[in-house]
User: Which sequence fits this backbone?
């Protein structure tokens, strides 16, 4: 039986705890706030999943068991991720899973995490679960088959009013009550909805376009009443092999639009999350053929179950490659940091991967 420790008893911690228990794993959840642990037991978990699971251990963070875990998950706010991850690595688990976004946009400590993972051999994963969902896997298969001719451009949008986030966190009155209202802490549209940037990079990687090396962004920031967050980011991207495309992320659009389109010389592919409630979709056309479509049933809890199943399979296979490997999440953090830099300087930014996962890797064009 896999043993899992989860840091953070908020929404993500509950989802991961339920997913792990659905797989029959042992779960301990810890948090620095006793009220968060009580809320998990008495409100969040039973409201979402029908009843509290008494097999789950609940611990204050400084009293939680240490050592003996296969996987340690970090679902705390992003500005605490790297410190919590460093402590988790000292427990020598087989792997850690860090929720997105991986860290603050200043990237402070990101390279040190990478170095420690390499030194210890512990596997690292990041919580961009969309790329291991059924719909994304179907899109991957079609892209690898090169059914659409040479890819000409790639667009991804995650446009979603963040009222849904606060509905899932009723103990928060709004963005100022958490990291969400502060882009430097990892909040705002570019951080919170960075699934879009990550999905763009994932598809670009799958077609052999290389990593993003130029970012040209515009963003609008809300600095009303002490908060400081971007509410929309428009990001133009170029890869090492010359692919051009665009990502849009915002926290104001309703109804939600989570969509990607790959345009090829002889066809197209579209991916859509939540095409209708409980349904993801992939549509494609090759040449003169009729447009085809596949629909995939899912729920929000199954996103996390598939994520943990993927990690389990990767650990058991010993395969070093994974679309949610921590290096992929760090690549996304470089693009987030570059987008903020570009938007504020009103100039494009180049990414130099030889300088590692540090702010020194970013240079204004």
Assistant:
């Amino acid at each position: 039986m896999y043993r899992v420790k989860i840091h953070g008893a908020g929404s993500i911690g509950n989802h991961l705890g339920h997913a792990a228990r659905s797989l029959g794993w042992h779960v301990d959840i810890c948090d620095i706030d006793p009220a968060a642990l009580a809320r998990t037991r008495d409100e969040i978990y039973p409201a979402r999943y029908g009843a509290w699971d008494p097999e789950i251990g609940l611990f204050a963070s400084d009293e939680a068991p240490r050592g003996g875990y296969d996987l340690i998950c970090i679902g705390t706010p992003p500005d605490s991720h790297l410190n919590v991850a460093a402590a988790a690595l000292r427990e020598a688990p087989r792997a850690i899973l860090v929720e997105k976004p991986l860290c603050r946009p200043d990237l402070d400590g990101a390279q040190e995490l990478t170095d420690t993972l390499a030194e210890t051999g512990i596997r690292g994963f990041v919580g961009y679960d969309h790329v291991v969902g059924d719909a994304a896997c179907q899109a991957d298969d079609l892209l690898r088959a090169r059914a659409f001719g040479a890819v000409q451009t790639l667009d991804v949008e995650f446009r979603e009013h963040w009222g849904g986030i606060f509905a899932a966190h009723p103990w928060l009155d709004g963005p100022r009550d958490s990291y969400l209202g502060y882009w430097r802490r990892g909040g705002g549209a570019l951080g919170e909805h960075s699934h879009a940037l990550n999905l763009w990079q994932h598809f670009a990687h799958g077609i052999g376009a290389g990593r993003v090396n130029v970012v040209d962004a515009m963003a609008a920031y809300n600095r009303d009443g002490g908060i400081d967050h971007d509410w929309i980011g428009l990001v133009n991207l170029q890869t090492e092999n010359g692919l051009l495309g665009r990502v849009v992320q915002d926290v104001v659009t309703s109804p939600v639009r989570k969509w990607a389109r790959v345009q090829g010389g002889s066809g197209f592919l579209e991916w859509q999350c939540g095409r209708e409630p409980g349904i993801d979709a992939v549509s494609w056309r090759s040449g003169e053929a009729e447009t085809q479509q596949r629909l995939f049933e899912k729920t929000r809890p199954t996103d996390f179950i598939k994520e943990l199943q993927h990690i389990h399979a990767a650990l058991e296979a010993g395969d070093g490659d994974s679309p949610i490997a921590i290096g992929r999440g760090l690549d996304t953090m470089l693009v987030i940091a570059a987008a903020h830099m570009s938007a504020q300087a009103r100039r494009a930014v180049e990414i130099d991967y030889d300088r590692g996962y540090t702010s020194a890797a970013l240079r204004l064009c």
User: Anything to note?
Assistant: The mean pLDDT is 96.
